[in-house]
Amino acid sequence: MKAIIFDMDGVIIDSEPLHFELEKELLEEFGGKISREEHETFVGTTDYHMWSTYKKQFNLKPSIEEMIEIKKERFVENIHKINLVENFEKFMLNLYKHRYLMALASSNNKKAVDTIVEKFNLYKYMDFYISGEEVIKGKPDPEIFLTVAEKIKIEPSDCLVIEDAQNGVKAAKAAGMKCIGLQNKNSGNQDLSEADLIVTNFNELDIDILKKLFD
């Protein structure tokens, strides 16, 4: 294990409730409506994938780009409501102390990622971070994780991903990486069964547990 790659929403920050709230509100403003279960299937995917699906499904008038931009602005306006996931910071600082490379790979947009990195001073600890806008194919495609491995010059097989969404776990495994599924109740009912290990809190993890995944 040479590098740990974190998803952002639902892993670093407990932001899925805010995403659900803003997306539901915006979709209904434009004339669409979906169930919570349908909404949860988009956790871990890009804004573009979600809003293009909604546009087609409900024949929405605004462009995909317009809807993404409105959601982006509202998310950043509400950033004060977001906290770090319980025990994430302690876990991250321990990895940093042991000099492991760390990166952030989020399906969220670049503005949101940059804002969160700044708000929580993550730039001090993360060797690299990337948003869903900086890749062509979003999760469950492995492109975002393979891009991180290439940028930090680490073989995919030496990387560990921590994800809270089914789409993210699928992307990590498709990239040839080890994966821990973080079952965050705020991320909805996510099937993390493809992960190498599933936990409900960062306090269930330590460096020895992570290393054993690579034995």
Fold and architecture overview:
The protein has 215 residues and is α/β, with parallel strands linked by helices. The chain has two domains: 3-15 and 82-212, Rossmann fold (3-Layer(aba) Sandwich); 16-80, DNA polymerase, domain 1, CATH 1.10.150. Helices cover 42% and strands 12% of the residues. It contains nine helices and six strands, in the order βαααααβαβαβαββα. The protein has helices spanning 16-29, 36-40, 47-58, 64-77, 88-97, 110-119, 143-152, 166-174, 207-212, and strands spanning 3-6, 101-105, 128-130, 159-163, 178-182, 197-199. The chain has a six-stranded parallel sheet with strand order 3-2-1-4-5-6, with helices on both faces. Strand 4, helix 8 (166-174) and strand 5 form a beta-alpha-beta unit. Helix 1 packs across helix 4 (64-77). The longest helix is centred in the N-terminal third of the chain and has 14 residues, at 16-29. The radius of gyration is 17 Å and the shape is globular.
Mean pLDDT: 96
Helix tally equals 9
| Shape by Cα distribution | globular
Give helix % range: 40-55%
Name given to the CATH architecture of the largest domain: 3-Layer(aba) Sandwich
Protein traits:
9 helices, 6 strands, single chain, Rossmann fold, 42% helix, DNA polymerase, domain 1, 215 residues
Helix and strand layout, with pairings?
Blueprint: E1 3-6, H1 16-29, H2 36-40, H3 47-58, H4 64-77, H5 88-97, E2 101-105, H6 110-119, E3 128-130, H7 143-152, E4 159-163, H8 166-174, E5 178-182, E6 197-199, H9 207-212
Parallel strand pairs: 1-2, 1-4, 2-3, 4-5, 5-6
Helix pairs in contact: 1-4, 3-4
